[in-house]
Design a protein that fits this description.
The chain has about 425 residues and is of the alpha+beta class. The chain has one domain. The chain is built from 19 helices and ten strands. Helix 5 packs parallel to helix 14 and helix 8 packs antiparallel against helix 10. The structure holds iron/sulfur cluster (2 copies). The site of one iron/sulfur cluster (SF4) has 14 residues, from helix 12, helix 13 and helix 16. One iron/sulfur cluster (SF4) binds next to helix 14 and helix 15.
């Protein structure tokens, strides 16, 4: 977006605007964009034999160490700030009404890192503390929380040393179901910002609760200081989907997460197998529906972890020009129907619930305003994936082969 809207958008995102934004009133949430607050029911459904995989994610520990030694992870915002700014500038009219509240919560989060609890923590049983912590998280409206070990390999090197202890708490807030079914759109983008702001507010509240108990805790501002998906998988909150996002059994990736670090002796959770990897092998809907083919059909080992590495060069331009896109979230059956219903259907019929239907796979493409059903995709004109104002150099470790990015690459498991 060029001209005065672009310049206004850029200024709104600058540090100079922060002092003004923090004093402005918050805009009320638009109808249909409010997050769904309240703790999710626990997911206890057993995984059928044909869907079983490993708990969490398949790893090669030596390769993880080697990748960390060779090239520690850095904050995407540090290396690709201009690309992020370009994306946000495209959405400045969606973002601007939310910036005062987002600015206030970011400042409050940063302040949690400066608190030295004065109260001495009474000796307390870890199980008792953890139960009280979870009760508080549920009472304030978080959808889920989990506890994992701090791991420097998965915290960005930019923030090493700022952690407050050896525990990382992952928290989620569920996004509006109705709004996400409208993605890509201004409505779904607003719902994303609403849930984003809410989860950061609630995690700030959790950090303060830990301070009051006598422990150090720091809520992480922005997009968190580490790989949220890693910690969420380690905390047993979900598994990595083919779309590169964390799929929770309750809402798929239709939720916003963030992290806090603490020295409170909370009990650790552990990775779980929900059967997501095999469901994805049979499903592949996001692979087929991504307008620019940014999602590979297969997973491979990247930095010691088995994942489908999204082609960021093909994804970022769409996110910028199509309201954050999120088609890969919208068309995911786990997001729409929940994992229990998807698993039941698969067990009963060997099919993926909703696959091939316009209800699940259809979307309105904001560039031309047309609805594309399950058998058609929007035309992508030459240059769409290379807008001249977008400056982005892909990370050096991202080297997909043609087979990796081709939707026709072979997959394993049932066909839906
Ligand atoms: S956000 Fe859109 S462009 Fe990016 S991977 Fe998902 S569907 Fe593809
Ligand atoms: S759309 Fe299908 S393949 Fe993609 S993440 Fe969801 S379940 Fe997995």
């Amino acid at each position: 977006m060029q001209g005065w809207p672009g310049r206004l958008g850029e200024w709104l995102l600058s540090a100079r605007a922060e002092q003004l934004l923090r004093c402005l009133p918050a805009a009320p949430a638009r109808s249909g964009t409010k997050p769904i607050l309240g703790a999710w029911a626990s997911y206890d459904r057993s995984v059928p034999a044909e869907l079983r995989g490993v708990p969490g994610i398949r790893r090669d520990r030596a390769a993880e160490d080697e990748a960390y030694e060779r090239a520690p992870l850095r904050d995407f915002h540090t290396d690709h700030g201009p690309a992020i700014t370009w994306i946000l500038r495209q959405h400045w009219h969606v973002l601007a009404p939310r910036l005062p509240r987002m600015t206030r919560v970011a400042l409050a989060e940063r302040a949690t890192a400066c608190v030295t609890p004065t109260a001495t923590a009474d000796p307390i049983d870890a199980a008792e503390l953890t139960a009280a912590f979870r009760r508080h998280a549920a009472a304030i409206g978080l959808s889920a929380v989990g506890v994992a070990r701090y791991d420097p390999r998965y915290h960005f090197v930019d923030y090493h040393g700022q952690e407050k202890g050896d525990r990382v708490v992952v928290g989620f807030v569920e996004q509006s179901w109705e709004a996400v079914q409208e993605a890509p759109s201004a409505l779904s983008e607003r719902a994303t910002f609403e849930a984003f702001t809410k989860v950061h507010e609630l995690m700030t509240n959790l950090a303060r609760w830990l301070h009051a108990c006598g422990y150090a805790a720091a809520a992480e501002a922005g997009d968190a200081h580490g790989i949220v998906i890693h910690y969420a998988v380690e905390a047993g909150l979900g598994q990595l989907g083919q779309n590169g996002q964390l799929l929770t059994p309750q809402a798929g990736s239709r939720c916003r997460p963030t992290l806090l670090t603490t020295n409170a002796p909370l009990e650790f959770d552990s990775p779980r197998d929900f059967g997501v990897t095999r469901i994805c092998e049979a499903c592949q809907v996001c692979v087929q529906r991504c307008p620019t083919g940014a999602i590979p059909a297969r997973r491979w080992m990247t930095r010691g972890v088995e994942k489908a590495k999204i082609n960021v060069s093909r994804c970022l331009p769409v996110m910028g020009q199509a309201y954050g896109c999120a088609i890969c979230m919208k068309v995911c059956p786990v997001q729409r129907y929940g994992l229990a219903a998807v698993t039941e259907e698969f067990e009963r019929t060997g099919r993926i619930l909703g696959k091939g239907t316009d209800e699940l796979e259809g979307y309105v493409w904001p560039i031309d305003g047309r609805r594309y059903g399950s058998r058609e995709k929007p035309p992508i004109p030459p240059g769409f994936t290379r807008p001249p104002e977008l400056r982005f150099d892909p990370p050096k470790y991202f080297k997909p082969s043609e087979a990796d990015v081709s939707p026709s690459a072979p997959v394993h498991g049932h066909s839906g």
